[in-house]
Design a protein that fits this description.
The chain is built from one helix and six strands. The protein starts with a helix and ends with a strand. It has one domain: OB fold (Dihydrolipoamide Acetyltransferase, E2P) (Beta Barrel). Strand 5 and strand 6 form a beta hairpin. By secondary structure, it is α+β, with helices and mostly antiparallel strands.
Length: 97
């Protein structure tokens, strides 16, 4: 299940751009939640977490919106680098737990 969730942003990107399969690399990171963002609308839900990534705040997305972490909790996420071509390089941060 974790691998499926991890490739959702990549598949979405490919479907939107119509690009061929890009080069990817990733690491997993455990870190502390700094902020929590949640939205619900007519039964649909969005969940993401702000964390520190080497001195920069980034948003880690829970693609399935099934988590309920709070500020101060430790989460694990995939830090993925996607290179579509020489000029298009994307970072993606996706929740694992």
């Amino acid at each position: 299940m974790k691998k499926i969730v991890a490739i959702i942003p990549l598949l979405l990107f490919l479907s939107i751009t119509g690009c061929k399969v890009p080069k990817t690399s990733y690491t997993t990171t455990k870190t502390t939640v700094l902020k929590v963002y949640t939205v619900t609308d007519a039964g649909h839900k969005y969940v993401s977490y702000v964390v520190d990534r080497g001195g920069v705040e980034v948003v880690v997305t829970d693609s399935l919106s099934k988590s309920a972490h709070k500020v101060g909790d430790t989460i694990e996420y995939i830090d993925q680098k996607i290179e579509v071509d020489g000029s298009t390089r994307v970072l993606s941060f996706t929740l694992l737990n």
